[in-house]
UniProtKB/TrEMBL annotation:
A motif (Histidine triad motif) lies at residues 143-147. Transmembrane segments: none annotated. PANTHER family: AP-4-A PHOSPHORYLASE, HIT FAMILY HYDROLASE. The active site is at H145 (tele-amp-histidine intermediate). This is HIT family hydrolase. Substrate binds at N75, H147. GO terms for molecular function: hydrolase activity; nucleotide binding. Keywords: Hydrolase, Nucleotide-binding.
Length: 187
């Protein structure tokens, strides 16, 4: 097929393709996540990013708060600003594997995460949950983690649906600092 000037026309699968009106936000840092690099496999904590992150200082590891048996960390690939996770230090895959004391601190950290987010960012609601096992959607199934995602009316407005763009108005380091300061303020 040629254009009006006799040049070959490109289809969506040729060369650079045809413009499709979608915006592209290049996020090469996510490729390791997509490839599954650094994911814990099985019962072994060796190589688990959640086990490694606790060895870093709080700022480098995006850790918001540390308890005696669990910790709160900002999600490296957030769905929304302030998206954090609560995890046990112990490398266990299933909620039923937690001890009674781990379960209590896990719940207390989840409640505090909600209070902190309300204090510093005034979300209208939250998505809270965990995916148990790869088949259920867990990105890192070998180390239990619960997501706490602040939500605002209109946070999923036209940008992702029509604009094909996700807007995160704050850098992760700034979000971590805001939440960590809020956590300490509510002690």
């Amino acid at each position: 097929m040629t254009d009006d000037f006799g040049k070959p026309q490109l289809t969506g699968q040729d060369g650079v393709g045809v413009h499709d009106a979608l915006q592209r936000l290049w996020t090469p840092h996510r490729l390791s996540y997509v490839k599954g690099e650094g994911k814990a496999v099985g019962d072994e904590p060796a190589g688990c990013p959640f086990c490694r992150v606790v060895e870093l200082d709080d700022e480098s590891g995006l850790i918001i708060a540390r308890g005696s048996e669990v910790f709160a960390v900002l999600n490296l690939y957030p769905y929304n600003p302030g998206h954090l996770m609560v995890l046990p230090y112990r490398h266990v895959p299933d909620y039923a594997d937690l001890t009674v004391s781990e379960t209590a601190e896990f719940a207390a950290f989840t409640q505090k995460a909600m209070r902190v987010a309300r204090h510093v960012a005034a979300p209208h609601g939250f998505n809270i949950g965990m995916n148990q096992g790869v088949v259920a959607g867990a990105g890192i199934a070998a180390h239990l983690h619960q997501h706490v995602v602040p939500r605002w009316g209109g946070d999923a407005n036209f940008m992702p649906v029509i604009g094909h763009t996700k807007v995160l108005p704050q850098l992760l380091g700034e979000t971590r600092q805001l939440l960590a300061d809020g956590w300490k303020a509510l002690d």
